[in-house]
Amino acid sequence: MQNDSGSENEYCKFDSELLTLFTSSLYVAALVASFIASTITRVFGRKISMFLGGVVFLLGSILNGAAVNIEMLIIGRLLLGVGVGFANQSVPVYLSEMAPAKIRGALNIGFQMAITIGILVAQLVNYGTAKIEGGWGWRVSLALAGVPAILMTLGSLFLPDTPNSIIERGGNDKAKEMLQKIRGTKNVDDEFQDLVDATEAAKKVEHPWRTITQPRYRPQFIMCILIPFFQQLTGINVIMFYAPVLFKTLGFGDDASLMSAVITGTVNVIATLVSIFSVDRFGRRILFLEGGAQMIICQIAVGIMIGLKFGVTGEGTLSKFDANFILFLICAYVAAFAWSWGPLGWLVPSEICPLEIRSAGQAINVSVNMLFTFVIAQIFLFMLCHMKFGLFFFFAGFAIIMTIFVYFFIPETKNVPIEEMNRVWKAHWFWGKYIPDDALLPANVELYANKATA
């Protein structure tokens, strides 16, 4: 796009529908796949969903690496999306069900840690393959996605199934042995009885999608929608998906922009480690609140810097100091996301739902996440072109809203056993009115479930 003076508008130089379609097609497939994965996860177990996700992801990476036209690339990208949908549906639930309450947060965030490492590795691969002569480096970059797919597929074959999943399929004795094994003690009678009671209640619920909309599940239903919605409206995908494009727009140059993306990926990994070591010690709320405040400050500062240097016309240049300062602000923003909304956006929805609606709740969480990931990926370059530096103020506004939301509406869930989560909601000043007294008594949950499905 040219401005009146004939020079290229820096905000609009990468506004390409083809680029955004290739990037965002994965998330449409993941959205649809999450609903299918919900049923498979509930009926056949978490392992099967992880295995199927790995296989389909591997097929997508092979197709991308061998692509001879854009259609093959997009089909391969869609298959990758199916794999992502299955993985995001099953892995957080698996981790939450297997982990003891006191370290559930850290173990679940291990899932996010693997994602951040994958992002960093992908950025390093992109940096390296961009230097391959002959124009085929992109094939190596896309095909290497098959490596984590193989690890996930093979790993799922050796993982034990969760006690919850085993009980759902009628293997109570085997489930108790598994619970004793993963807890490292024979004294699991109370926890095992909670799992059995919850499973019996869940079996009585024939329509989990209808059940989750009942008033008694209102807190979980709302959280499974709003948490992934807010997670994507932080603007993180603006940074992580389009980091090289963004840095080129800011005048960093080809190699510098890729290297800057690697730097943000490294920060992402290190900050996720901070979350792993602090989430079960300090809790979820403090990380949400601190991370939100830090993101707000960084986004506003980046918007001001870009506005001062490029203005509305998109003309201008960055000095070395300006570019480095913007990189610092972006890294501080990425760090804030990586120890707050990044991992907690997956952890909290996976741990708050009782068993009878857990698969439905996680499917809603994944689908909303993927829907808004798709929307942001599809319209970001258009928004950058038309909103210019105001785009950062747009996302800062959402960061303010979601930080206020956390303060008033998200209770602390650290160290609470996953099958006793209703007592947290019952004690909350707002959500407590939705939780009936019998929801706190496992023996009466089954009775309610019978009435609800009668």
Automatic annotation (TrEMBL):
Query: Main site of residence?
Result: membrane
- Presence of keyword Transmembrane: yes
UniProt cross-references to Pfam families, sorted A to Z: Sugar_tr
Can you tell which superkingdom this protein's organism belongs to? Eukaryota
Domain Major facilitator superfamily (MFS) profile, by residue range, is 1-414
Keyword Amino-acid biosynthesis assigned to the entry: answer is no
The record's section on InterPro entries has: MFS_dom (IPR020846), MFS_STP/MST-like_plant (IPR044778), MFS_sugar_transport-like (IPR005828), MFS_trans_sf (IPR036259), STP/PLT_plant (IPR045262), Sugar/inositol_transpt (IPR003663), Sugar_transporter_CS (IPR005829)
Q: Where in the cell is it found?
A: Membrane
User: Which sequence ranges are marked TM in the entry?
Assistant: 18-36, 48-68, 74-95, 107-125, 137-159, 221-245, 257-279, 286-306, 326-348, 360-383, 389-410
Q: Among the entry's GO cellular component annotations, what is one?
A: membrane
Membrane topology (UniProt): Multi-pass membrane protein
Instruction: List the keywords (alphabetical).
Output: Membrane, Sugar transport, Symport, Transmembrane, Transmembrane helix, Transport
GO MF term list: monosaccharide transmembrane transporter activity; symporter activity
- Give the family from UniProt: Belongs to the major facilitator superfamily. Sugar transporter (TC 2.A.1.1) family.
Q: What is this protein called?
A: Major facilitator superfamily (MFS) profile domain-containing protein
Q: Which organism is it from?
A: Fagus sylvatica (Beechnut)
Task: Tell me the classification of the organism that encodes this protein.
Answer: Eukaryota, Viridiplantae, Streptophyta, Embryophyta, Tracheophyta
